[in-house]
Amino acid sequence: MSDLDTLSVNTVRGLCMDQIQKARSGHPGTPMGMAPVAYTLWQRFLRFDPADPIWPNRDRFVLSEGHASALLWSLLCLTGVRAVDPDYEVLGRPAVTLDDLRSFRQLGSRCPGHPEYRWTSGVEATTGPLGQGVATSVGMAIAGQWLAARYNRDGFTLFDFDVYALAGDGCMMEGISSEAASLAGHQQLANLCWIYDSNRVTIEGHTDITFTEDVAARFLAYGWNVTTVADANDLGQVSRALHTFRAESRRPTLVLVHSHIGYGSPVEDSPKAHGTPFGPEGVRATKRFLGLPPDAEFHIPDGVRDWFAEGIGRRGAQLRADWEQAFAAYRTAHPGLADELERIQRRELPDDWERALPSFPADPEGLATRDSSGQVLGAVAEAVPWVLGGSADLAPSTRTRLVFDGAGDFQPGDRSGRNLHFGIREHASAAVANGMALTKLRPYWSGFLIFSDYAKAAVRLSALMEIPTVHIFTHDSIGVGEDGPTHQPVEQLAGLRATPGLLVFRPADAGEVVETWRVVAALRHEPAALVLSRQALPTLDRAEGRLGDATGVARGAYVLADTPSGEPDLLLLATGSEVALALAAHEALTAGGVGSRVVSMPCWELFDRQPREYRDQVLPPSVRARVAVEEASTLGWDRYVGDGGAIVGMHTFGASAPLRQLLTKFGFTPARVVQAAHDLLAPAHGGDPGEEVTS
Length: 695
Fold this sequence. Notes:
41% helix, 3 domains, Rossmann fold, single chain, 23 strands, alpha/beta
């Protein structure tokens, strides 16, 4: 290790201590202990240009142990990473300044408590919930392999990037890491390297109270290459381990690093070093031990920035310049593929992609929305070559397998396949899809709605990161019948709708499915959840204006059927399979002289964004008699029906029985909806305002 290596590592440590001490909040142990490892990776290996942090063939670094964010902020500051705006334009200012470090964990800071994608340039993924980062990195590695298979040509190696993730004991304990590691081992992702910071300390104490397994043996069983670094402070050992990864061509690599949490601090290797600042005296003592000025805060010694510029800066700039020169020639040799790549980077679609969308004739028998969605997805994927995905072992049920010529399966023997097999790993499936979306592909994954609970943390992160991952959920209600309450979702819709930034669509028929995909495919900064039926639903006859046009999906809710004249007496609100039920009740009410309006509400989030004028047109404030119908928890509907309405919904779990028996038992019949309407409209107001109607 040269003097400048030592000085640079200790500068990183000093900046980390100062951030945490000034904030009086944070986790100093891991940044202190792993500074030499992160420094070696960034300074000697990472193919990353600080001047262009979104260069497509850059190596990715994911800080899975996100509580160590001070380490990443210090590296971004010292290497001079430039800021990027939301339109993917590189700006002239640095992503992280010394002033940003001084405001660590403060309101509006570019250095928040955990790394946040799209907030601070140089952050490849939002991390913090342990295990999410390593699982997301698997998706990035898959994307790298797929991009290479589709776009590399003789004389043009446009994609060969590696993906690194820094993980800790907590990441290794989380179940999602096991799911993701198993998948990565099967897929032989040789471009993936997890660096495991084995410091043997968590918040409750040393890991011997909870975590005594042989992690290396576990990863060998997964099919990984495993190499060990006995001393995190030995840059030579770290370099040899990373060279071993670079030389591996058939397996992902786990670099198991034995580190000392809070290295050099007075509380080294204790739980205190993990989760609390050292205190002013502790910081000064540690700086003296490291040879830094003990009273200088946020100090960057002369020569350190230049040293980083000569290392990662010079290497990254040259690699990016070579890539851009190659891409210019590639554009001439392969203009169609080059156009695709430029669209991918801008999150744009082919100009004529909407022409591929199918249409569905009116059909009273209809088809399940999972079936119509499968057809639309296939058409969209054929028109947009960078749409790919799969299912958590349920593709035959979720109808998400792509079957057009050339779709193929993504496997070690064929990286060009568009169908991914995630296995029974819902949590990892969602996180892997997030990783692909972060690499600018358009991924989807699928499963049953009831199992969205297993994936909720990754679904939430897709919304927090503002990436257009598509989460496809089928078997959306008690309509799964005989499978019973273990497989019948009740509260899952409410949970998804409660997630800020997630668009949740529950289309009523094949026409609404087409319009849902028209919206979803074009999203650039929002994820979507499609909630689809197992049972057949009528394909509505919208000819000659008898029913509202399905293009109303783009506004979240629209008038589907209305009273022949005048203002309606009553509003019937529904989503998905219950829209046909609301229409049947509407016909019965009309025959009985009651003027009712049916409002289909496939996406609450889009409706809530509409101007008040439109929302009041669809749901006139003067009409207080409102009945909402949905085979799910009633939570949330009160804001649409108000205190003068009723909700036909679920307050219990379901039951195992044929579908028709379930619908009768739980009150999802035209007669029950009509009765709820009459109760609201009765002169004596036979029902209590705001009642929730169940069996």
